[in-house]
Write a structure and sequence with these properties.
CATH class of the largest domain in chain A: Alpha Beta
Oligomer: heterodimer
Helix content of chain B: 10-25%
CATH architecture of the largest domain in chain B: 2-Layer Sandwich
Largest sheet of chain B: 7 strands, mixed
Number of domains of chain B: 6
Structural class of chain B: alpha+beta
CATH architecture of the largest domain in chain A: 2-Layer Sandwich
Shape of chain B: elongated
Number of strands of chain A: 9
Distance between the termini of chain A: 72 Å
Radius of gyration of chain B: 42 Å
CATH superfamily of the largest domain in chain B: Bira Bifunctional Protein, Domain 2
CATH topology of the largest domain in chain A: BirA Bifunctional Protein, domain 2
Strand order of the largest sheet of chain B: 27-30-31-35-34-33-32
CATH superfamily of the largest domain in chain A: Bira Bifunctional Protein, Domain 2
Largest interface: A-B, 86 and 91 residues
Strand content of chain B: 25-35%
Radius of gyration of chain A: 39 Å
Order of helices and strands of chain A: HHHHHEEHEHEEHEEEHEHH
Low-confidence stretches of chain B: none
Mean pLDDT of chain A: 85
Number of helices of chain A: 11
Number of strands of chain B: 39
Low-confidence stretches of chain A: none
Helix content of chain A: 25-40%
């Protein structure tokens, strides 16, 4: 029996020494010390062994068993330290499994980026309803009675609400600024708020024109504001959105609800101002109108224009997003086409 | 609007070496947007005047000839040409290699190269006028007619642009940027602005001195609509071409030269911005009356439109009836004809909004109406008259003025405004000296009187038709003359008390981010109007929906009262490309109900809510998995977005839902929306082929954001808790809601939680039954439970389920 034990032990030692992976060790373990293992079976035969030899054989068996277990554990540690747990032909170039596959609309992403930027400067976020009256869409914004935008070719009027006086006529809002008047009417100055939203114009669509598009209005109203403060605001915002310091220029522009009014241009981010096809070789891209709210607008909001003034900008979100990603057709934003939308994570 | 720089230079002495880039930039920054600066001569590069020396037949083509042409470089050129009017010694326009032409005036531009035409080498091209863009200036009278330049006495080889005096610069100005500046419509107006910007002298027009003895008269019957009307009756004119320079200028800014009488009126309009008109005096019966049209009065316009007039229209009439639509277009009857010998020149001012209404009413906007509708000042008639007479006298030396009448009944009041100088300094963010402010305004034509802190400003006539009316307008003038870019940007100083806390706004954002990022849904935007097909299929009833009066298309008139029709449409459209996807939208919905006046008591606005809806579409998942996936997204939403939780009931079936798979969603006792499987009927009607579509829609304005995070801390279990699964057979109709009600977790009890694991119907399960596996979490806060105690707690649950619901333990 002694010889048997020794031969089992030496064979096990050899196998363990040569083992290259865990599976061999497992095999050795079950073949030698498992329930049906060779040493275990010998142990079961112990009662049949001569009584005088029993203690010695018992001891030998236990030592051998412990030795095998010990060797296996040692070898296992050794294997873990030096080798991989998997076969060497494991293919790590296989692509990963995509996490849950969803996303926000690129317009929403831009809007939230702007919200974060403005909120970091102490602005409130405001939202208002899509349907408004002519009174708020035009009258309160200093649009003359005969302004072309009031006509149906530019505004979506509601059936059954498309005639009568301006407080009775209802439309899908053609811009956000009327909503800003509502904000001012219901809050106490000073104001510092942004107002993202969708607006509607009755026009023919093409790659650059949409019937529904997104604006982002920012308005600040206080007692001692100079119109040049607006420049700081715009620079901060564009720099946040584009991640670099974006040169900005303000030039004379006309909109009924501001006085003075500006067109605000940013340096073309494609050519860095040198002139390219994107900026029509001017180096500047018109991004937003702005200006000080017209005294009549402040009056409509219940403020004294001699006391209060402010600064306003209205950012075209679609255009900004188009510039951010190089999107060349504005109609894609309302397409609900997942081939387009899933590109923006 | 296109402007010619050489024409502008008639009125302002801009130096010849003026930096045009800077001029365009300065105008853009301070006045109007210059969209383009074009060097007109560039269109005619590599084109020159050639003189035909010989004309020989082409050996291989009947219609072509081979011309020997002198182009002034001492070496005669052979050019193949198909022109029908070629003559020896004729001066022609030659396009040499490198010139850009259009074949027969059509199609894409082509660069001229030396080439063989039917086997004969041709140096370049002898051009027809429309091939080099001169068709409107030199109209051809027949096919294949070559431009004959024999009238231009220049030597062979003279560059074409020099020969025709076309070395001009054209400024293209964005019309929108000058809608509020009627004074700029015309070369003189821009010249005046340039003179102010660069402090250059501006030409003044001498008022015309007219003596005419006759009973010629003009009558204005509505001076509100016609503040001023000057009529000049002239004898001794005739229809002939106007001088080339006048034609050329009219052409280069985008109009067509017609004949001298018409050209003078157009030229004066382009120069001064004040439209003028010439009537054939012989057709005017009695005297001219400016009056409102009578109802249903008829007028045949110059362009052939036959109008039935409206009482709001202003007309120029004679003793018999209307002869012209005032400020818009002349009539056919009074128009200049080849035999016209006597004309009445109209130099008038009309009120802007009336002109606009009339032009729009008949869809007949013209160069004249588009200027009048900007509000031209009546004083400008003087310039227009002076310039008109200058040209009439120059072109018709025999001219005799037989009648003259200037009715100026509604004098223009110059705008007067008081500006507080402290206010001005505050708003500019900069202190300018009084002299500086005065200089900036006076150069623009304002009169300025400063008394202490008050500045009294009187605007020039040309800025007094509405453009300058309040002190902010004056501030703008000072600021732009100083240069917007010269103001240093100063940060805002406003300070606010307290943090901004906007729970509802944050909640919607949290929900959108939760749906997109945690639930893997893609956000979409669709229009607020819906397609009739989807409205009918999904909503079935349009009662209470708002409609557009002029919708984008006849079948897109209903405004959405639910986000679902458009989402289902989006599912249908995406089915072509995807078989598994989830989308959601957050947007407003509208109904023609519950009108309120939250801002102004005279205004009444319909019910407008803000909904969130999602659609999960799958071709392969079973309805059970799909339902649990979408319901799970809803159930966990309150937890992740910090709002009060949802409960689900089965009370009112949504019209679009499958008869079984739907629930109503509640927060507290308020119903906020529905979840359900879109019924087979609806998907069929919507053209969805293979997808099962599970949707939910909730009204986000009814959600209740939590004031702060409210999860309470629970002590970690001191003693171990054990999960213990039981599987029991229930009636197939038993619901989890009933089961969990029976288990009824009690505070302090040993069963801490009962979770749904799965349910199973089928093999090994008797008909009419289902097996439900429930995971009980069992433990005690006082001690470690023995396995006997755990078994006992579980057994008690099973006993309850058996007693109350007839559930049996499933055989293991």
């Amino acid at each position: 029996m002694k010889d048997k034990i020794e031969s089992i032990l030496s064979e096990a030692k050899n196998m363990i020494a040569e083992a290259q992976d865990e599976s061999i060790l497992q095999k050795v373990r079950s073949a030698v010390v498992g329930k049906q293992g060779s040493l275990t079976l010998l142990l079961k035969e112990l009662p049949n062994v001569d009584v005088s030899l029993r203690p010695e054989m018992g001891k030998l068996l236990n030592v051998a068993k412990n030795k095998v277990t010990e060797l296996i554990d040692e070898k296992r540690t050794e294997l873990k330290l030096k080798a991989s747990e998997v076969s060497p032909d494991f293919d790590v170039s296989v692509p990963g499994i995509m996490p849950m596959n969803g996303g926000l609309h690129p317009i929403t992403q831009m809007c939230y980026d702007l919200n974060d930027a403005f909120r970091s400067m102490g602005f409130e976020v405001y939202q208002e309803d899509d349907i408004t009256s002519e009174m708020y869409a035009f009258d309160k914004l200093n649009f003359p009675q005969n302004h072309p935008a009031r006509e149906s070719m530019d505004t979506y009027w509601l059936a059954g609400h498309d005639s009568g006086s301006t407080n009775e006529k209802l439309c899908l809002r053609p811009h956000l600024t009327g909503g800003s008047v509502r904000y001012m009417q219901t809050h106490k100055p000073p104001y510092r708020f942004v107002y993202p939203g969708r607006v509607y114009r009755n026009e023919t669509t093409d790659a650059h024109h949409e019937r529904a598009f997104f604006q982002y209005e920012a308005l600040i109203v206080d007692k001692d504001i100079t119109f040049t403060s607006g420049k700081v605001l715009i620079k901060s915002i564009l720099s946040k959105v584009f991640g670099t310091d974006v040169p900005v220029r303000m030039r004379s522009g006309f909109f009924p609800f501001v006085e003075p009014g500006f067109e605000i241009d940013m340096q073309c981010q494609v050519c860095g101002g040198k002139g390219c096809s994107v900026c029509k070789h001017v180096g500047w891209i018109e991004v937003m109108p702005g200006g000080s709210p017209h005294p009549n607008v402040l009056r409509a909001a219940g403020l004294d224009p001699d006391e209060y003034t402010g600064f306003y900008v209205n950012i075209g979100l679609d255009r900004l997003v188009m510039m951010r990603y190089g999107v060349d057709d504005v109609r894609l934003f309302h397409s609900a086409d997942l081939r387009f939308l899933t590109q923006f994570r | 609007m296109k402007l010619s720089l050489s024409w502008i230079k008639d009125y302002v002495s801009l130096p010849d070496d003026a930096d045009l880039k800077k001029l365009a930039y300065d105008l853009t920054m301070d006045t109007v947007e210059v969209e383009d600066v074009e060097y007109l001569g560039k269109r005619f590069e590599n084109m020159m005047v050639g003189v035909i020396k010989e004309i020989a037949p082409h050996p291989n083509a009947d219609k072509l000839r081979v011309c020997t042409v002198d182009i002034g470089d001492g070496e005669d050129k052979e050019i193949v040409c198909g022109g029908i009017n070629l003559e020896k010694s004729m001066r022609v326009a030659v396009s040499a290699p490198g010139a850009v032409v259009r074949w027969h005036g059509e199609g894409e531009p082509v660069v001229i190269k030396k080439s063989k035409l039917r086997g004969v080498e041709s140096y370049g091209m002898i051009c027809a006028s429309d091939e080099i863009g001169l068709g409107d200036l030199f109209p051809s009278t027949q096919e294949a007619e070559i431009l004959d330049l024999s009238a231009f006495d220049v030597p062979a080889g003279t560059p074409l642009a020099d020969a025709l005096d076309l070395n001009d610069v054209l400024l293209e100005i964005d019309n929108k940027s000058m809608t509020n500046r009627p004074d700029l419509w015309g070369h003189y107006g821009i010249a005046r602005e340039i003179a102010a910007l660069y402090k250059l002298p501006l030409k003044k027009f001498e008022a015309a001195q007219i003596q005419a003895k006759s009973d010629f008269k003009v009558e204005i019957l509505d001076s509100e609509r016609c503040p001023r009307y000057i009529g000049v009756e002239m004898n001794g004119v005739e229809v002939k071409p106007s001088p080339f320079k006048m034609q050329s200028r009219i052409w280069r800014v985008g109009m067509r030269p017609i004949n001298a009488l018409v050209d003078i009126t157009n030229y004066v309009m382009l120069a001064t911005g004040n439209p003028t008109h010439a009537f054939d005096a012989d057709v005017i019966k009695d005297h001219i009356r400016v009056r409102r049209a009578e109802k249903a009065e008829k007028l045949l316009l110059l362009n052939g439109k036959d109008l039935e007039l409206n009482e709001d229209d202003l007309v120029i009439a004679d003793g018999e009836g209307p002869v012209a639509l005032a400020g818009v277009m002349g009539g056919a009857k009074d128009s200049i004809l080849p035999d016209t010998k006597r004309v009445i020149l109209e130099v008038a001012n009309f009120e802007s909004t009336g002109i606009r209404r009339t032009a729009l009413r008949y869809d007949n906007r013209t160069e004249a109406s588009s200027r009048y509708e900007k509000a031209v000042d009546p004083e400008r008639c003087d310039q227009a008259l002076a310039l008109s007479l200058e040209y009439f006298k120059e072109l018709y030396p025999e001219l005799e003025i037989t009648g003259y009448c200037d009715k100026y009944e509604k004098k223009l009041e110059r705008a007067e405004i008081d500006v507080n100088l402290t206010w001005l300094a505050k708003r500019l963010g900069k202190h300018l000296t009084n002299d500086d402010i005065r200089a900036k305004l006076e150069i623009l034509g304002f009169d300025v009187a400063i008394d202490g802190d008050n500045m009294h400003v009187t605007a020039p006539t040309w800025r007094s038709t509405g453009d300058i009316s309040i002190k902010d307008d004056v501030m703008e003038e000072v600021a732009r003359m100083y240069g917007y870019d010269n103001f240093e940007a100063t940060p805002f100083t406003t300070s606010f008390e307290g943090a901004i806390n906007q729970k509802s706004i944050d909640l919607v954002r949290n929900i959108k981010e939760y749906l997109a990022i945690r639930c893997g849904m893609q956000e979409v935007y669709t229009y607020p109007w819906m397609n009739d097909v989807f409205v009918n299929a999904v909503m079935q009833d349009t009662t209470g929906m708002l409609k557009l009066s002029t919708p984008p298309a006849p079948d897109l008139s209903y405004l959405r009262s639910s986000l679902l029709p458009n989402l289902v449409e989006a599912v249908m459209k995406n089915e072509r490309y995807f078989s598994e996807f989830s989308i959601f939208e957050e947007a407003q919905v509208f109904t023609d109900t519950d009108y309120t006046s939250p801002y102004d008591e005279t205004e009444s606005l319909p019910r407008q809510r803000r909904n969130i809806a999602a659609a999960v579409a799958s071709a392969s998942k079973n309805v059970n998995d799909l339902f649990r996936e979408v319901k799970g997204a809803l159930e966990f939403m309150p937890r992740f977005t910090h709002m009060e939780g949802f409960t689900f009931r089965k009370e009112t079936k949504p019209v679009w839902a499958d008869s079984v798979v739907w629930q109503n969603i509640y927060t507290g006792d308020v119903k906020i929306g529905d979840i359900g499987l879109v019924s087979g009927k609806v998907t069929l009607e919507c053209g969805i082929k293979n997808l099962k579509v599970l949707v939910f829609e909730i009204d986000s304005t009814l959600l209740k954001p939590l004031i702060s995070r409210t999860n309470k801390f629970t002590h970690l279990a001191e003693f171990p808790e054990t999960d213990y699964d039981i599987s029991m057979l229930f009636d197939s109709s038993a619901t989890w809601e009933e089961i969990s009600d029976v288990i009824a977790i009690k505070e302090g009890g040993l069963v801490k939680k009962a979770s749904f694991v799965d349910e199973y119907r089928g093999k090994q399960i008797p008909a009419g039954k289902k097996s439900v596996t429930i995971r009980l979490t069992i433990g005690s806060s006082e001690k470690t439970l023995t396995s006997e105690e755990i078994e006992k707690a579980a057994a008690s649950v099973m006993k309850q389920l058996g007693k109350r619901m007839g559930a049996e333990l499933r055989a293991q």
